[in-house]
């Protein structure tokens, strides 16, 4: 199995969590695909995955079938399984739907916001700043997600993030390619701060505008990303 990761280290999968082996393997492989530890176009071997992680081929096969249904891998007759390349169409659709949902979330947040969630937002922003300073892509993305989760929870609509979470994986693969330095990360932190400032001011129009601007950042970055990584896109 060919495994490639930004930074050059190999793929690692933790199967110690709860749930069936196939489900855990599916989630970990998806994480590796989204984080680009498994690059678009890389071929996957059921046997090598099974041997590497000490499982039978059956849960590996089940995990790959599930990922195929989600359109993250493609099963090629006589050729094995391949991580699909990034689809700009899927990315743009996911981004559009996310913008619709999260724009509504921040408008509601301006009406009333849970103080505990407000504290979580500050913690997430501080953690993001530390991650950006050391150019830690994985940590930055993790705290980015915590920020958006806290927004939804604070606005009283946590299910909104559940929907977004199911949509954004196709978007996240392209986003990974834009976070190449601390300056790019700092720009997103500033956009987060603008969203929070508008919520603190109870200004729904400003909050929505800040969120829409934030979620269109990927569109502004895409031309350069496509130019630098043409082999990763469909």
UniProtKB/TrEMBL annotation:
Pfam families: FCD, GntR. The keyword Transcription regulation applies. The keyword DNA-binding applies. Transmembrane segments: none annotated. Keywords: DNA-binding, Transcription, Transcription regulation. InterPro entries: GntR_C, TF_FadR/GntR_C, Tscrpt_reg_HTH_GntR, WH-like_DNA-bd_sf, WH_DNA-bd_sf. Residues 19-86 form the HTH gntR-type domain. This is GntR family transcriptional regulator. GO terms for molecular function: DNA binding; DNA-binding transcription factor activity. It comes from the Bacteria. Coiled coil: none annotated.
